[in-house]
Structures are given as C-alpha cells and as structure tokens.
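Each field is set out as follows.
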Amino acid sequence: MHEDLNDRFLKFLRDNGYLVTRQRRRIAEVIFNSKGHLSVEDIQSLLRQRKISASIASIYRTLDVMIKSGLVVQHRFGKRFKRFEAVREDWHHDHLVCISCNKVLEFKNDTIEELQIQVAEQHDFMITNHKLDIYGFCSKCAKKK
C-alpha cells in the first residue's frame, strides 16, 4: 500500500520523537497539497486562508523537520530567495528563475539529462545528484526591458 506524504511525515515525526502537533500537520498539508515552490510567506498566507495562524518561526522550524524527513527540499535561488517544495516520485526537474519578479518555472529535458550522463562518463565520474537553475527574465519581465 502506498503511503501519501502526510502519512509518511507523521510516521517520521513519531519514529524520531517529534511531537505531532496540529500546526505541524496543517503546515505539512499546505506544502504537500501545493504544487511548485513556496516561500515561507506563501505558506503562511495559505495557512491564513484556512484560518490557521502560524508564525514565520514556527513554519521554519517545521520546514527544518520536513527537510530532515526527506519529504521536502529547500531551494536557494539567489540571496534570501528560499523556496520549498514537496519531494514526489519522479520529482527531479530543473528550474528557470526570473531575476526580476522571482518567478520559478520547472522543466524537464531528456537531452540535458542524457548530456550530463555522457559528460560524467567521459570524466569517469559517478553522479549522485545534480541541480540546474537557469537565471534570466520571464516573458512578462523581458517585455518590460
């Protein structure tokens, strides 16, 4: 039986001696039910829409635990530009990051993936992970230039 991310997070909390609080469960629900890359402010706003209050500090503490669980990953797209996303099956993707409005677009490209494998083989290198973030301007911001 396949466990969903919420169940896996609750199991991680229990197995590692963390308290299972209502606030942690709600923060996890927001992240696991959202697609894309959320800032802490985005998470707080989504919680407020559900009439749930959570301080920025509480959200960061919960995110730290979620990262330790391996169910959430943190991205740094420049200085003070952290975003968080749930790790799903076949979740690997790369990013286009707008340096004007901070919009983040996900993409997958088999040619890039294959090229990385070829480069690693040419250098007798074993890849364990990689990250590709391409910075520039989204179409809206490029039109303003």
